[in-house]
Design brief:
The protein is α/β, with parallel strands linked by helices. Helix 8 links the parallel strand 4 and strand 5. Strands 1, 2, 3, 4, 5 and 6 form a 6-stranded mixed beta sheet that branches. It is built from 9 helices and 6 strands; from the N terminus they run αβααααααβββαββα. The structure holds iron/sulfur cluster. The site of iron/sulfur cluster (SF4) has 14 residues, from helix 3.
Length: 316
Amino acid sequence: MTSPEPDLPELSVPTPSVVAMTQVSDVEVPAELPPVVLGSLSPSRAADFKTCPLLYRFRCIDRLPETPSRAATRGTMVHAVLESLFDLPSAERTLDSARQMLPSAWARVREEAPEVDTLFSEDTDGSDFAGWMESAAELLGNYFRLEDPSRLEPESREQRVEIVIDGLQLRGIVDRVDVSPAGDLRVVDYKTGASPREAFEAKALFQMKFYALVLWRTRGVVPRQLRLMYLADTDTLSYAPDAEELTRFERTLMAIWAAIQRAMQTGDFRPSPSRLCDWCDHKALCPAFGGTPPPFPQNPVLTDPRDDPPAPPLTP
Ligand code: SF4
């Protein structure tokens, strides 16, 4: 025999009315909360940490200023021309047009980084500057030997890409993305230096794999080709990544981030001397060369890569 149901007070509460539902719907509830961001990493800063943890600290925590170099500044200017070139109708994308853009590209670089004016402060007769501009024009000539921009319609140029994976924001700016009619992606990066020797190819591809990973995670498509174009010696380096490799690369980035976090807690950013030290602006402060770094801040703050100074990679 079943006993009668007890009189449960909570069930005797009247069902909410439609009026209550209307009131709730007036409150804006975001469809999806943005992912929590615990830190950011760009390919250049991740490469800095891999190259030398102390260099990473000098750049991202101490934010020590760096002297602009003629080579890096010329690279920025040539990149600006190659970006603008694709604004022209395809038939007008000629070498002459590209070279005519150099003065305005130089003006843009000066506007964004006025410190580059110091590069030619002692060039009283203007001959250094003229030679430097000529070398930029030669790099553009080499670009046209590598490809014909009138036959290309890039999907994007200088595109900012980012994704948050397990709280780590991966972000960067991709020089160019091409998409074939079949939907295949090609990631292109211009280098104004010479192509690396075989032993350094993996290092050169680090940045490209970073972009490939972010594009894969944001679009769901593994880029078909990563293409580095070396304008100094008219060479290219092409590589076809696959999902398995990018998954491994993602683990590598996570390991780098974990190592950065450990170093943040202990303040232990060790110098890692190499031949690249000859191009390091901070050698005088480096213990590997008898220097003393500034005291480690009590509450160190990592700079968001969006605010990164245009620190170039250390390259011979
Ligand atoms: S001089 Fe070399 S070891 Fe020292 S911080 Fe610079 S890159 Fe690192």
